[in-house]
Design goal:
The chain is 45% helix and 18% strand. The chain is an alpha/beta fold and 391 residues long.
Amino acid sequence: IEITNTHSDKVPDHYIRKQTLANAERYITSELKEYESLVLNADERRLEIEQQLFREVCMQIAAQANHLLELAEGLAELDVTGALAETALMRRYVRPEVDEGPAIEIVAGRHPVVELTLTDEPFVPNDTRLTPEGCIHLLTGPNMAGKSTFLRQVALITLMAQMGSFVPAAAARIGVVDRIFTRVGASDNLVRGESTFMVEMIETAAILNTATARSLIVLDEIGRGTSTFDGISIAWSVAEHIHDHVRAKTLFATHYHELTELASKLEGARNVSVAVREWGGKVVFLYRIVDGGADHSYGIQVARLAGLPPEVLDRARHILESLESGAPSLSGLPEQLYLFGPASTGAAPAAPEPSRVEQELEAVNTDDLSPREAQELLHHLKRLLGGADRA
């Protein structure tokens, strides 16, 4: 309580002087002192009360723990089944037939996530029929055509059916699988010294060593992290091992068109591909899975969609035509590719005759040329080149 010196004679006797100022005195009372103590201790007291209340609540909850856990379990089950039922109704899912049979048969199956993201066009459904007689489907086709989507939707439909959900399809009969194995994407584990290809091989080894005839295997490219010949050899051998020993239902997507020959060599292998059409020099994706293997990957067309420079695309097309028209050397590309552009069919062309410019350069002794003579020679060679261009 601050009182100026003018009124100092009016200060009550029970006021206690606390502080002296130039023109006033400050006082407290016993009541203010008690209130000060309450304010300073309020936070500590509040925390004590909160902790005590919390302990009491915990004791009350613990006494009803069994009932609360049963309630939580029931609510969780209602939440899951209610969400699945609502989704099935809204997205036109059907009840699958789940049995102990060896087959997976899906009519007009759809990817439950991808179909929700499409706004400009409807999702294209596809059929699947994996049986002991056709346990391996070798899926070929271009990038961006829907191979990975198809692989994943079969795995997801199988998983959803076995967990008790309706599935995105017109009809489905799912033979129970013991596990779903996937080898998709490209990733590395550099901290442990594992390259992308090493991770791919580790995952493939785990599948081959663990899968059974009751498993579903989804392979999205095998052997792409190494040389072409190595990759084809590994992918071919993996497909044979699954067919001959594992006998698991398998969807095997690959860009190695050589693997389509397996359908004629392995009784349980079947070729399927993603349908595409070329129109106006561009590739049109139909997203439809059809019987038979693809003979092109349309990689250059996809590169155009990605925005590669036109000169890069033109050069890639020339190299592709050369590789497809003639047998490439073991080093990877025919030598003439690097020197003369697209190679012609048949035998490698003979070395061309040296031009007049090359002949004159060969005859020049550069050590004997003065700066003036070198300049005159350069002008002379430019004139020769200009004449050759006009010719």
